[in-house]
Amino acid sequence: MSKIKVADFYYGAALSVLFNNSNSKITAALIESDDNRQLYGLMTDKNECRLFIKYRSAKIDTKTEDYYSWLFSLTERDKSEIQALIDEGYNLVLALVCGVSGLSDSELALIDKEQVKELIDLEKDSITISRRKGEHAYRISIGGGRENAMQVTANRFEELF
Fold it and tell me: What's the pTM?
């Protein structure tokens, strides 16, 4: 009997959303995996990229009900692997699976290569991503509050894949 790990649900959900929302034909190959992240090689009819997936199973408790926030840790291994992919010239997409209890309202944020480079250059050990209900973009804290946050458009599938 094979046991299914909790992480498998989140990584599988990210791939399912990607396959179901892209207008491109996508072929995926798992390159590396552990409980904290997965790396895929993706081929579409438009391009080739590396998809680096991390997940959080629950949002951060906030004072406001219509405000969701998640904290993703970046290990030294994550940062060096991401930097190596950038240095090797890969088209990189960081997928953050933003889970909530019950799973059905979970979200997937896609961060493009230029945004990932900016985050790595900040030398942060974590990424805090948030979104208010009804907003069409996520915000990633880069210091200085919501006004000084990186904007990440929701539903970027056609743009990135």
Answer: 0.90
In a domain, 109, yes or no: yes
Within its chain, how far is the Cα of 51 from the centroid? 9
Residue 29 binned pLDDT confidence (cut-offs 50, 70, 90): very high
| Number of domain units in the chain | 1
Report the relative pairing of strands 107-111 and 126-132 from DSSP bridges: unpaired
Among 22, 9, 10, residue whose Cα is nearest residue 49? 22
Beta sheet of 67-73, edge-to-edge order: 67-73, 126-132, 137-141, 149-153
Q: Mean pLDDT in the chain?
A: 88
What does the alpha-carbon distance between residue 120 and residue 28 come to, in Å, rounded to a whole number?
A: 25
User: Could you tell me the two tokens for 85?
Assistant: 């992919």
> How many whole angstroms separate alpha carbon 20 and alpha carbon 26?
10
What pLDDT is stored for residue 1 in this prediction? Answer: 57
